[in-house]
Design a protein that fits this description.
The mean pLDDT is about 95. The chain has a single domain, classed as YefM-like fold. The chain contains 3 helices and 3 strands, in the order E-H-H-E-E-H.
Length: about 70
């Protein structure tokens, strides 16, 4: 999974008041953040603008597949 998402955080980091710092890092770098829980992948945090770009690309690819 590291080849897709380099940055990693633990769910407990969010519980320890680190969420604002982690969100800022995602916003500033525009890179997704992989969050693990109990040693397993749990969620991904994305910058909103990057998420919209990703969805637009997927929609465009799906539209082209139907053509």
């Amino acid at each position: 999974m590291e080849k897709y998402i380099e940055d990693l955080a633990l769910t407990r980091d969010f519980c320890k008041g680190q969420s604002a710092k982690l969100f800022k890092k995602v916003k500033d770098t525009k890179k997704p953040l992989r969050v693990t829980r109990n040693g397993r992948d749990y969620v991904v945090v994305l910058d909103f603008e990057e998420y919209i770009k990703m969805v637009d690309k997927i929609n465009l690819l799906e539209k082209n597949d139907k053509s």
